[in-house]
Amino acid sequence: MTLLIVILVAAVVLTIAPLAYTRARRRRGPELEPPARPVGPTKAGTRPPSTRPPGTRPPGTRPPTGRPPGSSPSTSRPPAGPAGARPTGASPAGPGRGPVPPAEPPAGRGPGSPSGGTASPVDDREATGAPVEFPADLQAEIEAVLDEVEGEALAEEEAPGLAPPVKPRFRDRIGRARAVFSGFLSCTAIDQDTWDDLEEALVRADVGVTFTMTLLDELRGRVKAEGIRTSQELVEALKADLKKALASADRGLRLDPGETNVWLFVGVNGVGKTTTIGKLGYREAAAGRRVVMAAGDTFRAAAAEQLELWSQRVGADLVRGAEGSDPGAVIFDAVQRGASRGADVVLGDTAGRLHTKVNLMEELKKVRRVAERPPGHLTEVLLVIDATTGQNGLTQAKLFAEAVGVTGVVLTKLDGTAKGGIALAIQTELGIPIKLVGLGETVDDLTEFDPDEFVDALLDE
Ligand SMILES: Nc1nc2c(ncn2[C@@H]2O[C@H](COP(=O)(O)OP(=O)(O)OP(=O)(O)O)[C@@H](O)[C@H]2O)c(=O)[nH]1
Ligand SMILES: [Mg+2]
What we know:
44% helix; alpha/beta
């Protein structure tokens, strides 16, 4: 009897055990199958989605080995756009012109995904896409394998760089400003008409009345003193005077090695701050520097989205906040992120402000104070001025310089205006060096301000 009972129990155990094992396997899924991961912009403090195939991450975007500390503004890395994230052509168009790279499917193998196999009708959690739970030891193993795979992909991705931007020539871009001087340049002798033509050209170029008068007086003096007789000699004397007026000791952008340099961009609405950050970020990344972009213009969501497009193109980290959130907090978080990633420079965007709104200027002062706080190392506050606004730019420069201190000017849209003379007014009246010039909307169209090249482009036939 006892023997019969033992045989029966053994038979039952042998039948049930394989069934139970099979069910357990179905519930867990295949070994090392990762859980579905979220997609979209990642919050600092969470693991970013592993959506990138190898070879698609631009340089300067290696994720930290540990997980970043939590912060309120969200941070994102460029998505794995197959082409959009890494321009290779010599003259890529700026964001907004080309299509936005499509978002890639999440790495987690969700239901119906090609690599995830077919959803098992046996397990409804898989069929509905509900997260699959893993035992702690298995989860650790999964993380280790994913880290290894991602590490290999990064090593591959960081090798190639961005194609350096192609420097535009002033002469090719400032046709409208050149045209203003055509009457003066066609003079064949030095007579009253010549002086009238020159005065008119300087005024139309928006050099400013004060500077125009000073310049004309000085030239008349030189004509007498140096015995200048031909119009050609007069043009050469004018060029020399203009170059002297624009000569400035320091036009370089300060970037201290080993520091989390912060460059803030300020200026009124629509002057080109965000576009300049995009172009400059591209240039810095192409030179092998790690760039973080901070969407400090929190007044409208579109501003952060515009910067996000640029960050994707450049391969820079982006830190942004919710619409209407504190811009200082965004800059703070961007600096922290830059420091933790060993970034060379944080490019801080700010809202376009009307200089008449004192409270907005106060906010900008606050942003500056945040940017100065270690580990932040504020090395540039660049005032972006739209050259088409002419003398109005001078008023802006005065107000911004008073409020936040300005280390240099970026003069944008010089390609579409006759009023390039504002460059002279800013430098001669305020003593603020023009450091960069925008000569168009694409990523290539930002260049250092070379006064000699500028003056020659204006006045050479
Ligand atoms: N032609 C030309 N257009 C430019 C240049 N720089 C910027 N732009 C254009 O100017 C427009 C405004 O540029 P944004 O970068 O959005 O200006 P912003 O200062 O950030 O504007 P807000 O965010 O509204 O304060 C965009 O259409 C740019 O493409 C330039 O150097 N030349
Ligand atoms: Mg902007």
